[in-house]
Amino acid sequence: KEQIKSSIIIAQESLSERMQSIIKNQLTFGCSKPFAETISIVESISSIEIFDFIVKYLHPEKWSSIVFLPK
User: Fold this and answer.
1) 47-62 per-position pLDDT tens digit
2) Do 60 and 67 form a contact (C-beta atoms < 8 A)?
3) Whole-angstrom Cα distance, residue 26 to residue 50?
4) Model confidence, pTM
5) Cα distances (Å, whole numbers) of residue 33 to 12, 23, 39, 63
6) Torsion-angle region of 14 (φ positive above 0: left; ψ -120 to 50: alpha; else: beta)
C-alpha cells in the first residue's frame, strides 16, 4: 500500500499525470475524485482483500518459479 500511495503522490507533481488522473476518474467514475479520497481508498484496502484479488484474478497456481540453490 505504501508503494501505491507513494506512486500516487509522486504522480501529483507532474501536470500531465494530474490531467491523466482527472480524465481516468471522469471515464471510470463519472467524476473527479479528490486526492485525499484516493489515498483514503488505498488505506481502506485490507491484506485479505488483496490476497482474494490475487487468487481470483491472477491465478497464482498457474505461476511458475525458479529456485536457485547454493552450490
Assistant:
1) 999 999 999 999 988 8
2) no
3) 25
4) 0.59
5) 13, 10, 10, 35
6) beta
